[in-house]
Design a protein that fits this description.
The protein has about 290 residues and is an alpha+beta fold. The chain has helices at about 15-25, 30-45, 55-65, 120-130, 165-175, 175-185, 205-225, 245, 285-290, and strands at about 5, 10, 100, 110-115, 140-150, 150-160, 185-195, 200, 230-235, 250-255, 275-280. It has two domains: about 5-65, no CATH class; about 100-290, Aminopeptidase.
Length: about 290
């Protein structure tokens, strides 16, 4: 009996692989691009906005070929991939005059969504220069924010699609693996949070988290045409304690195993992360588990 093929949480049966081989053999002159998009149509692999999951399908096809399960058509052309050859963000200079005060002295604080705006390069630069993890291009749904005070940037925050599987989070929500796959898009992940190093304002971090919890859901709905009901983040326990998240009423859910999403060794290979969550509605469990 042939075993199933699993890649990044997506399971293909032996019959699925036979269908792929059949599609390739019956379309010998078609491109890899055609094959992946046709599979997406046949399997109804679509994003929430209706677009085909073409990039995911192509990744799976390449993986299937690498392990010898299929043979793809020859490449018709080699296209330069700007994502694979991405350069670090360009430096954008900003005023670094120290800001040392209390919150009321920097009010009003404006939280501005900057993705696909003139300020996105500023966000990328600040994260690259001043966040300990640096800047990496987000994958999937994502929104970038800069907090401004009197025209000066004081902090940045990035949100992306949720992490596919976190044991303590999934137990806290109480959903099954099948429901999680269907409803994971209803969670947003806080992947970057940076208060600029020359900004020293007491309780600012928790204040900004509270502001984000009120603003991000509406922006997400407008940008991606679907709501979110839960926020999550990781805190590196070797560097931080997550005090600002606790002060902003985020819930400590547990810790990661330190093995990564695609681990095959069952051994820790990275730092342990504390997992925090923030429900956006009281009935979040009923909605997410539906």
């Amino acid at each position: 009996m042939e075993s199933d093929f699993i890649y990044q949480g997506h399971q293909l049966t032996h019959s699925d692989i036979v269908s792929i081989k059949t599609l390739i053999s019956t379309n010998p002159d078609k491109s890899r691009w055609f094959i992946s998009r046709e599979l997406c149509r046949q399997w109804n692999w679509r994003q929430q906005n209706g677009a085909l999951k073409d990039m995911l399908c192509r990744s799976i096809l390449l993986k299937l070929e690498s392990v010898g399960l299929i043979t793809l058509p020859p490449r018709k052309r080699i296209i330069n991939n700007p994502l694979a050859n991405r350069k670090p963000p360009s430096l954008v200079k900003v005023d670094q005059t120290p800001i040392v005060c209390v919150i009321k002295d920097i009010q009003p604080i404006e939280l501005r969504s900057v993705r696909k705006t003139q300020y996105e390069k500023l966000y990328n630069s600040l994260i690259h220069e001043h966040h300990y993890l640096g800047y990496t291009h987000p994958i999937g749904e994502n929104i970038k924010y800069i907090y401004f005070s009197y025209g000066r940037p004081i902090a940045c925050m990035g949100w992306t699609s949720a992490v596919r599987h976190i044991g303590c989070r999934d137990r806290f929500i109480g959903w099954s693996a099948e429901i999680r796959k269907k409803n994971l898009h209803l969670i947003a992940y806080n992947t970057r949070f940076l208060i600029l190093p020359w900004v020293k304002v007491t309780y600012l971090a928790s204040h900004l988290l509270g502001l984000s919890a009120r603003i991000v859901p509406g922006d997400w709905l407008e940008f991606y045409k679907h709501p979110i009901y839960f926020l999550e983040t990781f805190v590196d326990t070797e560097k931080f304690q997550g005090i600002c998240y606790r002060a902003a009423n985020w819930i400590f859910l547990g810790k990661t195993t330190g093995r990564g999403k695609n681990d095959q060794t069952n051994k820790q290979n990275r730092s342990i992360k504390a997992v925090f969550g923030y429900p956006l509605q009281k009935n979040f469990r009923r909605i997410l588990c539906h």
